[in-house]
Give the backbone structure.
Amino acid sequence: MKLKEIVAAAGLTVRAAPQGLGAEVTGGYASDLLSCVMAKAQEGNLWVTLQAHPNIVAVASLHDLAGIVITEGQEPNPQTVEKANEHGVCIMTTEHATFTIVAKLAELGVRGVD
């Protein structure tokens, strides 16, 4: 499924790197611990977190993730948006809690990393 389809179906708001919306989403991973994401997320995954600082872009770039969904109404700070645009990492936001948006992604067919 393409990232742009997920954005539309889940009601996400794109905050950075909209050129990445054509990415194919291969699965999903949810964690707020950067070390866990670095160890377990896989190329093409959509990462769900409430972290919004610039380091999330570096972690997403490390595995060539499809994008990052920031939850609970958190907004990426300007440095995060700037870095994401530079590196082509699509960042989206939602007012929903992490649990709620992960359930929605699973309903759309996005499968988690085991």
The helical segments are 3-10, 34-40, 55-62, 78-87, 98-107. The chain has one domain: 3-72+91-107. The chain is about 40% helix and 20% strand.
